[in-house]
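Morning!

As promised:
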Amino acid sequence: RPAGRAGRNTELPEHLKAYKGVWVFIEHDRGHVHSVSWELMGEARKLADTLGVTVSGVLMGGPADDLELYAKEAYTYGADRCYLMRDPVLQGYRNEPFTKGLTDLVNSHQPEILLLGATTMGRDLAGSVATTLGTGLTADCTELRIDGRAMAATRPTFGGSLLCTIMTLAYRPQMATVRPRVMAMPRRDDTRSGDIVEMTLGMVETDIVTKLLDFIPDATRNTVNLAYADIIVSGGKGLKTAENFKLVWELARVLGAEVGATRAVTQAGWCETERQVGQTGKTVRPKLYIAAGISGAIQHRVGMESSDCIVAINTDPNAPIFDFAHHGIVGSAMQVLPVLTQTFRNH
Ligand code: FAD
Protein backbone atom coordinates (compact mmCIF):
# COMPACT_ATOMS: atom_id res chain seq x y z
CA ARG A 1 0.00 0.00 0.00
CA PRO A 2 1.40 3.41 -0.95
CA ALA A 3 0.98 4.84 2.58
CA GLY A 4 4.17 2.97 3.52
CA ARG A 5 6.54 4.13 6.19
CA ALA A 6 6.07 7.82 5.41
CA GLY A 7 2.29 7.40 5.52
CA ARG A 8 2.22 6.71 9.25
CA ASN A 9 2.69 10.35 10.12
CA THR A 10 0.58 11.87 7.38
CA GLU A 11 -2.93 13.15 7.99
CA LEU A 12 -5.83 11.06 6.79
CA PRO A 13 -6.52 12.10 3.16
CA GLU A 14 -9.44 14.56 2.98
CA HIS A 15 -11.75 12.24 0.97
CA LEU A 16 -11.44 9.51 3.63
CA LYS A 17 -12.53 11.72 6.52
CA ALA A 18 -16.21 11.09 5.67
CA TYR A 19 -15.78 7.42 6.69
CA LYS A 20 -17.10 7.05 10.25
CA GLY A 21 -18.13 4.26 12.58
CA VAL A 22 -17.25 0.65 13.26
CA TRP A 23 -19.25 -2.14 11.60
CA VAL A 24 -19.60 -5.83 12.33
CA PHE A 25 -20.97 -8.26 9.75
CA ILE A 26 -23.35 -10.48 11.76
CA GLU A 27 -23.09 -14.04 10.49
CA HIS A 28 -26.09 -16.31 10.93
CA ASP A 29 -27.01 -19.68 9.57
CA ARG A 30 -30.21 -21.71 9.90
CA GLY A 31 -31.57 -19.80 12.87
CA HIS A 32 -28.36 -19.19 14.80
CA VAL A 33 -26.02 -16.22 14.96
CA HIS A 34 -22.38 -17.33 15.05
CA SER A 35 -20.88 -16.37 18.43
CA VAL A 36 -17.86 -14.84 16.68
CA SER A 37 -20.17 -11.98 15.64
CA TRP A 38 -20.82 -11.11 19.30
CA GLU A 39 -17.13 -11.50 20.16
CA LEU A 40 -16.43 -8.97 17.38
CA MET A 41 -19.22 -6.71 18.62
CA GLY A 42 -17.39 -6.47 21.96
CA GLU A 43 -14.16 -5.51 20.15
CA ALA A 44 -16.03 -3.06 17.89
CA ARG A 45 -17.44 -1.35 20.98
CA LYS A 46 -13.93 -0.83 22.41
CA LEU A 47 -12.58 0.52 19.09
CA ALA A 48 -15.60 2.81 18.64
CA ASP A 49 -15.36 4.15 22.20
CA THR A 50 -11.70 5.04 21.60
CA LEU A 51 -12.60 6.82 18.34
CA GLY A 52 -15.78 8.40 19.75
CA VAL A 53 -18.00 6.87 17.02
CA THR A 54 -20.93 4.43 16.82
CA VAL A 55 -21.08 0.65 16.31
CA SER A 56 -23.34 -0.88 13.66
CA GLY A 57 -24.23 -4.46 12.87
CA VAL A 58 -24.95 -5.63 9.32
CA LEU A 59 -27.66 -8.28 8.93
CA MET A 60 -28.34 -9.78 5.52
CA GLY A 61 -30.75 -12.64 4.90
CA GLY A 62 -33.88 -14.00 3.27
CA PRO A 63 -37.60 -13.97 4.17
CA ALA A 64 -37.18 -16.94 6.55
CA ASP A 65 -34.47 -15.26 8.65
CA ASP A 66 -35.51 -13.43 11.83
CA LEU A 67 -33.19 -10.48 11.27
CA GLU A 68 -35.10 -8.22 13.71
CA LEU A 69 -34.53 -10.72 16.52
CA TYR A 70 -30.79 -10.87 15.73
CA ALA A 71 -30.70 -7.05 15.70
CA LYS A 72 -32.19 -6.96 19.23
CA GLU A 73 -29.47 -9.35 20.35
CA ALA A 74 -26.83 -7.20 18.62
CA TYR A 75 -27.82 -4.18 20.73
CA THR A 76 -27.34 -6.14 23.94
CA TYR A 77 -23.73 -6.87 22.86
CA GLY A 78 -22.91 -3.25 22.03
CA ALA A 79 -24.41 -2.25 18.65
CA ASP A 80 -26.07 1.19 18.38
CA ARG A 81 -27.69 0.48 15.01
CA CYS A 82 -28.32 -2.41 12.61
CA TYR A 83 -28.47 -2.26 8.83
CA LEU A 84 -30.99 -4.85 7.63
CA MET A 85 -30.97 -6.12 4.08
CA ARG A 86 -33.63 -8.73 3.33
CA ASP A 87 -34.12 -10.27 -0.10
CA PRO A 88 -35.11 -13.74 -1.39
CA VAL A 89 -31.69 -14.08 -3.07
CA LEU A 90 -30.05 -13.66 0.36
CA GLN A 91 -31.71 -16.81 1.75
CA GLY A 92 -28.63 -18.96 2.41
CA TYR A 93 -25.11 -17.66 1.83
CA ARG A 94 -23.83 -17.13 -1.69
CA ASN A 95 -20.84 -14.96 -2.48
CA GLU A 96 -22.25 -12.85 -5.30
CA PRO A 97 -25.40 -11.36 -3.70
CA PHE A 98 -23.73 -10.97 -0.28
CA THR A 99 -20.72 -9.23 -1.83
CA LYS A 100 -22.96 -6.85 -3.78
CA GLY A 101 -25.15 -6.17 -0.73
CA LEU A 102 -22.29 -5.48 1.67
CA THR A 103 -20.35 -3.44 -0.90
CA ASP A 104 -23.44 -1.30 -1.61
CA LEU A 105 -24.00 -0.75 2.12
CA VAL A 106 -20.38 0.30 2.63
CA ASN A 107 -20.46 2.65 -0.35
CA SER A 108 -23.62 4.36 0.81
CA HIS A 109 -22.83 4.63 4.55
CA GLN A 110 -18.99 4.71 4.60
CA PRO A 111 -17.85 2.98 7.80
CA GLU A 112 -14.20 3.46 8.74
CA ILE A 113 -13.80 -0.11 10.06
CA LEU A 114 -15.52 -3.33 8.96
CA LEU A 115 -15.01 -6.56 10.94
CA LEU A 116 -15.99 -10.10 9.95
CA GLY A 117 -15.46 -13.50 11.59
CA ALA A 118 -12.66 -15.59 10.08
CA THR A 119 -15.14 -18.40 9.44
CA THR A 120 -15.68 -20.18 6.12
CA MET A 121 -18.34 -17.61 5.21
CA GLY A 122 -16.51 -14.59 6.65
CA ARG A 123 -13.26 -15.39 4.88
CA ASP A 124 -15.01 -15.87 1.56
CA LEU A 125 -17.03 -12.67 1.87
CA ALA A 126 -14.29 -10.44 3.33
CA GLY A 127 -11.89 -11.20 0.48
CA SER A 128 -14.37 -10.42 -2.27
CA VAL A 129 -15.74 -7.30 -0.55
CA ALA A 130 -12.22 -5.91 0.06
CA THR A 131 -11.27 -6.60 -3.55
CA THR A 132 -14.44 -4.99 -4.91
CA LEU A 133 -13.97 -1.92 -2.70
CA GLY A 134 -10.22 -1.79 -3.43
CA THR A 135 -9.32 -1.54 0.24
CA GLY A 136 -7.00 -3.36 2.65
CA LEU A 137 -7.97 -6.52 4.56
CA THR A 138 -5.99 -8.04 7.42
CA ALA A 139 -7.00 -11.68 7.94
CA ASP A 140 -6.94 -13.78 11.13
CA CYS A 141 -6.11 -10.94 13.51
CA THR A 142 -5.27 -11.66 17.13
CA GLU A 143 -5.46 -8.05 18.35
CA LEU A 144 -7.19 -4.87 17.18
CA ARG A 145 -6.53 -1.42 18.58
CA ILE A 146 -6.60 2.22 17.56
CA ASP A 147 -3.31 3.98 16.81
CA GLY A 148 -4.05 7.62 15.99
CA ARG A 149 -7.00 7.57 13.54
CA ALA A 150 -6.20 4.13 12.12
CA MET A 151 -6.79 0.57 13.31
CA ALA A 152 -3.65 -1.40 14.11
CA ALA A 153 -4.41 -5.05 13.34
CA THR A 154 -1.99 -7.66 14.65
CA ARG A 155 -1.68 -11.14 13.16
CA PRO A 156 0.85 -14.01 13.12
CA THR A 157 3.22 -14.15 10.18
CA PHE A 158 6.20 -16.25 8.96
CA GLY A 159 4.52 -19.52 9.96
CA GLY A 160 3.45 -18.08 13.31
CA SER A 161 6.97 -17.32 14.49
CA LEU A 162 6.45 -13.52 14.37
CA LEU A 163 3.54 -11.16 14.97
CA CYS A 164 3.09 -8.25 12.57
CA THR A 165 0.89 -5.18 12.93
CA ILE A 166 -0.80 -3.92 9.77
CA MET A 167 -2.42 -0.52 9.28
CA THR A 168 -4.51 0.51 6.29
CA LEU A 169 -3.71 4.19 6.02
CA ALA A 170 -4.66 5.28 2.53
CA TYR A 171 -7.93 3.37 2.02
CA ARG A 172 -11.28 2.96 3.75
CA PRO A 173 -12.89 1.01 5.23
CA GLN A 174 -10.16 -0.78 7.17
CA MET A 175 -11.18 -4.44 7.07
CA ALA A 176 -10.18 -7.30 9.36
CA THR A 177 -11.24 -10.87 10.08
CA VAL A 178 -10.84 -12.52 13.49
CA ARG A 179 -11.17 -16.23 14.24
CA PRO A 180 -13.82 -17.53 16.66
CA ARG A 181 -12.70 -17.52 20.31
CA VAL A 182 -9.72 -15.20 19.75
CA MET A 183 -11.68 -12.35 21.38
CA ALA A 184 -13.57 -12.79 24.64
CA MET A 185 -17.37 -12.86 24.60
CA PRO A 186 -18.64 -9.46 25.82
CA ARG A 187 -21.07 -9.21 28.70
CA ARG A 188 -24.72 -8.77 27.63
CA ASP A 189 -26.64 -5.68 28.61
CA ASP A 190 -30.33 -6.44 28.08
CA THR A 191 -31.33 -2.83 28.70
CA ARG A 192 -29.62 -1.62 25.48
CA SER A 193 -31.60 -0.94 22.29
CA GLY A 194 -30.85 0.67 18.93
CA ASP A 195 -32.04 1.83 15.50
CA ILE A 196 -32.81 -0.24 12.44
CA VAL A 197 -31.99 1.02 8.95
CA GLU A 198 -33.55 -1.08 6.19
CA MET A 199 -31.81 -1.37 2.83
CA THR A 200 -32.71 -3.11 -0.44
CA LEU A 201 -30.42 -5.20 -2.61
CA GLY A 202 -31.69 -4.68 -6.16
CA MET A 203 -30.62 -8.05 -7.53
CA VAL A 204 -32.69 -10.86 -9.04
CA GLU A 205 -32.08 -14.60 -9.15
CA THR A 206 -31.16 -14.53 -12.85
CA ASP A 207 -28.26 -12.11 -12.04
CA ILE A 208 -26.60 -14.82 -9.93
CA VAL A 209 -24.46 -17.57 -11.42
CA THR A 210 -24.36 -19.79 -8.30
CA LYS A 211 -27.52 -21.73 -7.46
CA LEU A 212 -28.17 -23.10 -3.99
CA LEU A 213 -29.70 -26.55 -4.53
CA ASP A 214 -29.50 -28.15 -1.10
CA PHE A 215 -27.68 -27.95 2.22
CA ILE A 216 -26.00 -31.15 3.40
CA PRO A 217 -24.37 -30.74 6.84
CA ASP A 218 -20.91 -32.17 7.36
CA ALA A 219 -21.53 -34.84 10.01
CA THR A 220 -17.94 -34.76 11.36
CA ARG A 221 -18.03 -30.99 11.88
CA ASN A 222 -21.25 -31.18 13.86
CA THR A 223 -19.75 -33.62 16.33
CA VAL A 224 -16.50 -31.71 16.96
CA ASN A 225 -17.31 -28.58 18.95
CA LEU A 226 -13.77 -27.76 19.97
CA ALA A 227 -13.86 -23.97 19.79
CA TYR A 228 -16.64 -23.69 22.37
CA ALA A 229 -15.79 -26.67 24.63
CA ASP A 230 -15.35 -26.00 28.38
CA ILE A 231 -12.81 -28.78 28.87
CA ILE A 232 -10.32 -30.08 26.29
CA VAL A 233 -7.88 -32.95 26.69
CA SER A 234 -5.28 -32.57 23.97
CA GLY A 235 -2.57 -35.00 22.92
CA GLY A 236 0.75 -34.52 21.18
CA LYS A 237 3.47 -36.55 19.51
CA GLY A 238 4.88 -37.41 22.94
CA LEU A 239 2.18 -40.09 23.11
CA LYS A 240 4.29 -41.96 20.54
CA THR A 241 1.54 -44.15 18.95
CA ALA A 242 -2.09 -44.02 17.83
CA GLU A 243 -2.78 -46.75 20.39
CA ASN A 244 -1.49 -44.55 23.24
CA PHE A 245 -3.58 -41.63 21.93
CA LYS A 246 -6.63 -43.60 23.13
CA LEU A 247 -5.57 -42.58 26.68
CA VAL A 248 -6.52 -39.01 25.73
CA TRP A 249 -10.01 -40.19 24.68
CA GLU A 250 -10.46 -42.11 27.91
CA LEU A 251 -9.69 -39.11 30.12
CA ALA A 252 -11.87 -36.87 27.92
CA ARG A 253 -14.81 -39.29 28.25
CA VAL A 254 -14.59 -39.30 32.06
CA LEU A 255 -14.36 -35.48 32.18
CA GLY A 256 -17.08 -34.88 29.55
CA ALA A 257 -14.39 -33.10 27.53
CA GLU A 258 -13.61 -32.66 23.83
CA VAL A 259 -10.41 -34.16 22.40
CA GLY A 260 -7.83 -31.87 20.82
CA ALA A 261 -4.49 -32.54 19.15
CA THR A 262 -1.38 -30.94 17.72
CA ARG A 263 -0.67 -30.83 14.01
CA ALA A 264 1.96 -33.53 14.46
CA VAL A 265 -0.82 -35.82 15.68
CA THR A 266 -3.41 -34.98 13.00
CA GLN A 267 -0.74 -35.37 10.32
CA ALA A 268 0.14 -38.79 11.74
CA GLY A 269 -3.54 -39.69 11.35
CA TRP A 270 -4.11 -40.46 15.04
CA CYS A 271 -7.28 -38.30 14.98
CA GLU A 272 -9.35 -36.12 12.62
CA THR A 273 -7.92 -32.82 11.37
CA GLU A 274 -11.01 -31.03 12.82
CA ARG A 275 -9.44 -31.62 16.25
CA GLN A 276 -6.23 -29.71 15.51
CA VAL A 277 -5.63 -26.78 17.84
CA GLY A 278 -3.40 -23.92 16.76
CA GLN A 279 -2.55 -21.47 14.05
CA THR A 280 -3.76 -23.70 11.22
CA GLY A 281 -6.36 -25.44 13.39
CA LYS A 282 -8.94 -24.15 15.87
CA THR A 283 -8.56 -21.39 18.44
CA VAL A 284 -9.94 -22.54 21.80
CA ARG A 285 -10.64 -20.88 25.17
CA PRO A 286 -11.79 -23.66 27.52
CA LYS A 287 -11.91 -23.41 31.29
CA LEU A 288 -9.47 -26.36 31.42
CA TYR A 289 -6.93 -27.44 28.77
CA ILE A 290 -4.94 -30.60 29.52
CA ALA A 291 -1.92 -30.88 27.20
CA ALA A 292 -0.37 -34.36 27.21
CA GLY A 293 2.90 -34.94 25.35
CA ILE A 294 2.75 -31.51 23.69
CA SER A 295 5.95 -29.47 23.34
CA GLY A 296 4.19 -26.07 23.23
CA ALA A 297 5.39 -24.86 19.81
CA ILE A 298 4.29 -21.29 19.04
CA GLN A 299 1.89 -22.50 16.31
CA HIS A 300 0.09 -24.64 18.90
CA ARG A 301 0.34 -22.05 21.67
CA VAL A 302 -1.46 -19.29 19.70
CA GLY A 303 -4.53 -21.51 19.49
CA MET A 304 -4.86 -22.34 23.20
CA GLU A 305 -2.97 -19.89 25.40
CA SER A 306 -6.16 -17.99 26.31
CA SER A 307 -7.49 -21.08 28.15
CA ASP A 308 -8.38 -20.29 31.78
CA CYS A 309 -6.28 -23.16 33.16
CA ILE A 310 -3.60 -25.10 31.29
CA VAL A 311 -2.27 -28.34 32.74
CA ALA A 312 0.79 -29.75 30.93
CA ILE A 313 2.13 -33.30 31.14
CA ASN A 314 5.60 -33.69 29.62
CA THR A 315 8.70 -35.79 30.35
CA ASP A 316 11.00 -32.86 29.54
CA PRO A 317 11.07 -30.27 32.37
CA ASN A 318 12.42 -27.72 29.86
CA ALA A 319 9.61 -28.17 27.34
CA PRO A 320 8.28 -24.72 26.21
CA ILE A 321 4.75 -25.64 27.32
CA PHE A 322 5.83 -25.28 30.94
CA ASP A 323 6.61 -21.57 30.26
CA PHE A 324 2.90 -20.78 29.97
CA ALA A 325 1.07 -23.71 31.63
CA HIS A 326 -0.61 -22.93 34.97
CA HIS A 327 0.18 -26.40 36.33
CA GLY A 328 2.88 -28.77 35.15
CA ILE A 329 3.39 -32.49 35.67
CA VAL A 330 6.85 -33.76 34.71
CA GLY A 331 6.27 -37.37 33.77
CA SER A 332 5.19 -39.74 31.05
CA ALA A 333 1.70 -39.15 29.65
CA MET A 334 1.35 -42.92 29.35
CA GLN A 335 1.60 -43.15 33.15
CA VAL A 336 -0.08 -39.88 34.20
CA LEU A 337 -3.19 -40.03 31.96
CA PRO A 338 -4.46 -43.40 33.31
CA VAL A 339 -3.98 -42.14 36.89
CA LEU A 340 -6.01 -38.98 36.14
CA THR A 341 -8.73 -41.03 34.39
CA GLN A 342 -8.97 -43.40 37.34
CA THR A 343 -8.98 -40.55 39.88
CA PHE A 344 -11.77 -38.60 38.12
CA ARG A 345 -13.76 -41.80 37.51
CA ASN A 346 -13.85 -42.37 41.27
CA HIS A 347 -15.17 -38.86 42.00
P1 FAD B 1 6.65 -32.41 19.41
O1 FAD B 1 7.09 -31.03 19.15
O2 FAD B 1 7.40 -33.53 18.80
O3 FAD B 1 6.62 -32.57 20.99
C1 FAD B 1 6.41 -33.77 21.67
C2 FAD B 1 6.58 -33.47 23.15
O4 FAD B 1 6.27 -34.63 23.88
C3 FAD B 1 8.00 -33.07 23.54
O5 FAD B 1 7.95 -31.88 24.31
C4 FAD B 1 8.49 -34.24 24.41
O6 FAD B 1 9.31 -33.80 25.47
C5 FAD B 1 7.19 -34.77 24.95
N1 FAD B 1 7.22 -36.19 25.31
C6 FAD B 1 7.96 -37.19 24.80
N2 FAD B 1 7.64 -38.36 25.38
C7 FAD B 1 6.67 -38.08 26.28
C8 FAD B 1 5.90 -38.87 27.18
N3 FAD B 1 6.08 -40.18 27.29
N4 FAD B 1 5.01 -38.24 27.95
C9 FAD B 1 4.82 -36.90 27.90
N5 FAD B 1 5.51 -36.11 27.07
C10 FAD B 1 6.41 -36.69 26.25
N6 FAD B 1 1.08 -27.28 15.31
C11 FAD B 1 -0.09 -27.34 15.97
O7 FAD B 1 -0.22 -28.04 16.99
N7 FAD B 1 -1.19 -26.67 15.49
C12 FAD B 1 -1.13 -25.89 14.40
O8 FAD B 1 -2.16 -25.29 14.02
C13 FAD B 1 0.11 -25.78 13.70
N8 FAD B 1 0.23 -25.01 12.61
C14 FAD B 1 1.45 -24.89 12.02
C15 FAD B 1 1.58 -24.01 10.95
C16 FAD B 1 2.82 -23.85 10.34
C17 FAD B 1 2.93 -22.89 9.19
C18 FAD B 1 3.94 -24.58 10.83
C19 FAD B 1 5.27 -24.39 10.20
C20 FAD B 1 3.80 -25.46 11.87
C21 FAD B 1 2.55 -25.64 12.48
N9 FAD B 1 2.39 -26.51 13.54
C22 FAD B 1 1.21 -26.54 14.20
C23 FAD B 1 3.45 -27.46 13.96
C24 FAD B 1 4.23 -26.98 15.18
O9 FAD B 1 5.30 -26.16 14.76
C25 FAD B 1 4.81 -28.18 15.96
O10 FAD B 1 5.60 -28.96 15.08
C26 FAD B 1 3.76 -29.09 16.58
O11 FAD B 1 2.85 -28.32 17.35
C27 FAD B 1 4.47 -30.09 17.50
O12 FAD B 1 3.54 -31.02 17.96
P2 FAD B 1 3.80 -31.86 19.29
O13 FAD B 1 3.96 -30.94 20.43
O14 FAD B 1 2.75 -32.89 19.32
O15 FAD B 1 5.16 -32.65 18.96
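The CA atoms of residues 161 and 298 lie 7 Å apart.

Hope this helps with the figure draft.
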